[in-house]
Amino acid sequence: MALPMEVRSIVHDVLSERLSAVVDNRFDAGEFRLSESAKCGRYRVAKVLGMVKEEHDEVDAGYFERGHLIERWVVEGFRRKFPRRCRTQQTVKTPFGDTGHIDLWFPAERRIIEVKSVSDREQDLPRPEHVMQVQAYMHFLRNARGERRADSSELVYVRYGRQLSYEVHIVPYDEAVGQAIEDELRMLHEYAERYELPPIPSGYDPMSPPCMTYYGRAERCPLWSVCWKGSDRAPKLDAPEVADWVRDLAMLDAEKKALKAQEKTLEEAMKDIQAKLGALLDIYGVKQVSADGVTVTRTVVTPKPKFDMEAALADGALPTDVVERYQKVPKPYETWYVKRPKGQKEDAE
């Protein structure tokens, strides 16, 4: 029988291998994905040409795998209920050699079902990129005579959180949208064949989506530097909106420092009271004390041992090549400092 530590080690290895496989085999970057029909064409060409590469870690792989598992539950349920009426993972091909895979297709009903998993906190469904994805599927799913074989799609969103829930959105085929997707795809292939990037769309700017997104944290498109470094379409450093950003940052910086100072004062006051209560708990040999319906519990936490890797390497206890295999290189990060004019107090804003 395996010991608990061996079980943890085996489970860790199994999950790590699976997530690594998800990252390595996620997509073929050498073709245009129909699921990215709503994305920037310039970015799509750059990815096909190998100029940018999507960097995914095990956290991303975990999201992909969770979505895959939820999708499989729903798809398998449809297949069991309608074994002769639906087809799963139906391949759809474009005239340009690109392929996509439809989750569920009901040929007789001329109907497509795509399953997506989202957080229970997500709003504004369906996502525009998912609508464009199924529009592309309906446009390119054709028979040998070139006749379309789907007129409507249903986007099934399974929400995960404290419990699973779902919602369904119907997307009818739009001929104008489908033709626009095909025209753009033809154009992107022409650019890729010339090893040339399309121009930056006129409505884009370096501070707004899709060039910079703000979902929880600000992130730049992987092609951002290629598109915007030295560009004259960015605001000038002395532009009024830039001055507003500087003022706002200074104000928020002052508020943050004031809150930190307040937090430090509160923590010091709490430590004094915790010391008194801790002494009483030790005297009476108990873990908690109550008053006015409030219960305060003290838990003694034994910290995990820390390993001094530098000392071990210096002593020759660990081979350098072994350590390097497990070394993770951190991503660069930014530090910011707000300097005010002399005599200006931080709380003056």
TrEMBL record:
It comes from Alicyclobacillus vulcanalis. Residues 242-276 form a coiled coil. GO terms for biological process: DNA repair. This is PD-(D/E)XK endonuclease-like domain-containing protein. The keyword DNA-binding applies. It holds the Pfam family PDDEXK_1. Residues 75-227 form the PD-(D/E)XK endonuclease-like domain. GO terms for molecular function: ATP binding; DNA binding; helicase activity; hydrolase activity. InterPro entries: PDDEXK-like_dom_sf (IPR011604), PDDEXK_AddAB-type (IPR038726). Keywords: ATP-binding, Coiled coil, DNA damage, DNA repair, DNA-binding, Helicase, Hydrolase, Nucleotide-binding.
